[in-house]
Write a structure and sequence with these properties.
The complex is a heterodimer of chains A (293) and B (253). With 293 residues, chain A is α/β, with parallel strands linked by helices. Chain A has helices at 48-54, 78-91, 108-116, 122-146, 157-167, 171-177, 194-204, 223-245, 256-270, 276-283; strands at 66-71, 96-100, 150-154, 186-191, 248-251. The termini of chain A are far apart. Chain B is of the alpha/beta class and 253 residues long. Chain B has helices at residues 37-50, 67-75, 81-105, 116-126, 130-136, 153-162, 181-203, 214-242; strands at 25-30, 55-59, 109-113, 145-150, 206-209. The chains are: A alpha/beta (293), B alpha/beta (253). At the A-B interface, α3, α4 and α6 of A face α2, α3 and α5 of B.
Chain lengths: 293, 253
């Protein structure tokens, strides 16, 4: 029942522009558990038990690469920290591939249109982001992981678990939507109070974005007040997720260099048994950097 | 006894919508491409309107939010089974919330040209994980009546060739079943039909033989719809005599 080899054909030339070259030819898309008997449940409905037992988020992934994700609300500083980390890793000669939430071309137009015309519901908002993720998983996450690279993900499935549930979708449902996502080797949650996040966002630009402020939920007509209410919900859910999925938390109000130092320490831990030799071997001499050893 | 307002969700439904009564009727026409669904739906809709029912139509991949994206993605061959399933689910959710539920709330008969079963059939044939597809569609409302237009592959093939022609995706060419598009189409459609038969048993579809002339098929469809509406009216009549027991839709399991 596994997916067949997928041809990376037309329309993807630009996808790899800023990353290292990926394995060419064929690779598996989401790898599904085999031999699932759909007939056994008399009510036709899937059971929540299958969701829990089959969820790759609960077990380490089998790939030679490493997956490092950052999470946090807007204005938590996670992207800044991840960029600094990327430079540091590259400088050490690691083969790195960066991928960002909501960056796939596949649903860009639908999301833009949906946001502009206010057509999105919590469910379609969730599903379109899931398409983005699945598309990036196929082209941006799985191939570098299989090639032994370090994948840096600016936001991961926990963003959906937090935001979409804050919008009202069922927590179990959104977990099944992302059921095929592998567990990161390290997920760092940048925890920041609402007021700090607001201050940072408003300093950088004049207005809060409609969906980032949760204006689609009709919590308040005032964007700033709506942001407070919506992102507080998101924060509370993130706190729960740290326990459920073992996310590491970093206090994101501290000085940038101090946060980066803590981040690097955690990454070093996560890379301790990383087979750097093998990764280089599989990937050619990655990025033209000299090998470390 | 089923009445016009006792509807069930396939899974969790849409928790954020709350409980709203849905007095309308959701009738689904399923069947593979080229079986004559759109002709039959048009005839059925016109007839129901003459009978005094307000009718609303909704069709697979026709959501304003996603139809362009799906067309473009198919044309660019950018999809894999997972993104395909998710786009279908998004298209479905968009139409469910913006077309199907509002119409049912307003007491319309909604005729759906395909429903989640299309995703179940296709995803299984395409090699996706069938359990996962079913989980995606937990937000779906269970239809009141599913009429499946059934056809054998040898009758279907000439109809499609004479009609809109063989389509790349409808041939399962992406599955690389063979290099010949005709063979591939036939093979893929045969597998789809087989899967529909299995789903019909699982979900209790009413099977209508679509190898016959248009009028004969239409007459049978109307008979099934009438039977359903009569049963609902009887149940509602009895219920209102008892004490207005119509229960609202529950978003709980």
């Amino acid at each position: 029942m596994n997916f067949q080899d997928h041809d990376n054909g037309n329309g993807h030339e630009d996808r790899h522009a800023n990353g290292a070259s990926l394995v060419d030819g064929s690779f598996l898309a989401f790898e599904h558990p085999r031999n699932i008997d759909v007939h056994r449940n008399p009510d036709n409905a899937p059971t929540s038990q299958t969701v829990k037992t089959k969820n790759p988020l609960n077990i380490p992934h089998p790939y030679p690469g490493r997956l490092i994700a950052v999470e946090g609300i807007d204005g938590s500083g996670k992207s800044t920290q991840l960029q600094l980390l990327e430079r540091w890793l590259r400088a050490q000669g690691y083969p790195v591939h960066f991928t960002e939430w909501n960056s796939s071309r596949l649903v860009r137009r639908a999301l833009r249109r949906g946001k502009q015309k206010n057509l999105l519901t919590p469910t379609t908002f969730s599903l379109l982001h899931a398409v983005d993720f699945a598309d990036r998983f196929t082209y941006q996450i799985l191939p570098p992981l299989k090639a032994g690279m370090i994948v840096l993900a600016d936001r991961y499935v926990f963003t959906a678990f937090a935001r979409d549930v804050a919008r009202g979708v069922h927590p179990e449902w959104v977990r099944s939507v992302y059921r095929h996502a592998p567990r990161p080797d390290l997920t760092l949650y940048f925890r920041v109070p609402i007021e700090v996040s607001l201050e940072r966002l408003l300093a950088g630009r004049a207005k809060l974005k409609y969906h980032e402020a949760g204006m689609d939920l009709g919590l308040s007509g005032d964007p700033v007040e709506s942001f407070r209410m919506f992102q507080s919900r998101v924060l509370n859910i993130y706190d729960e997720l740290t326990t459920e999925f073992g996310l590491r938390t970093i206090d994101a109000i501290g000085e940038i260099p101090a946060q980066q130092k803590a981040f690097r320490q955690m990454v070093q831990e996560a890379l301790r048994d990383y087979d750097h030799e093998r990764a280089n071997h599989l990937n050619g001499n990655a990025n033209g950097h000299a090998q470390r050893h | 006894m089923r009445n016009g307002t006792s509807k069930r969700w396939y899974g969790h439904g849409l928790p954020y919508l709350g409980d709203k009564p849905l007095p309308g009727h959701l009738i689904v026409i399923e069947g593979t491409d080229g079986v004559g669904r759109s002709t039959q739906i048009e005839l059925l809709g016109r007839w129901l309107e003459l009978e005094g029912y307000a009718v609303s139509n909704t069709g697979w991949t026709r959501s304003p939010l996603l139809s362009a994206t799906i067309k473009e993605a198919k044309a660019g061959h950018q999809l894999n089974p997972t993104t395909f399933s998710l786009l279908y689910a998004a298209d479905f959710a968009d139409r469910l919330e913006h077309e199907i539920l509002p119409a049912l709330q307003a007491g319309f008969i909604v005729i759906a040209d395909r429903y989640m079963y299309t995703a179940f059939a296709r995803d299984t044939v395409m090699g996706a994980d069938p359990t996962w597809t079913r989980e995606l569609f937990q937000m779906a409302l269970i239809p009141d009546l599913v009429l499946q237009l059934d056809i054998d592959v040898d009758t279907l093939v000439p109809r499609v060739i004479q009609g809109k022609g063989i389509d790349y995706w409808e041939s399962g060419m992406h599955l690389a079943l063979g290099t010949d598009i005709f063979d591939s189409f036939k093979h893929y459609q045969a597998r789809l039909i087989e899967e529909y038969h299995r789903l019909a048993k699982e979900f209790g579809f009413v099977i209508v033989d679509a190898c016959r002339p248009v009028d004969a098929i239409q007459a049978e469809l109307r008979r099934h719809v009438l039977n359903y509406l009569r049963a609902v009216n009887n149940a509602n009549g009895m219920a209102s005599k008892v004490a207005h027991e119509s229960s609202p839709v529950s978003s709980k399991d």
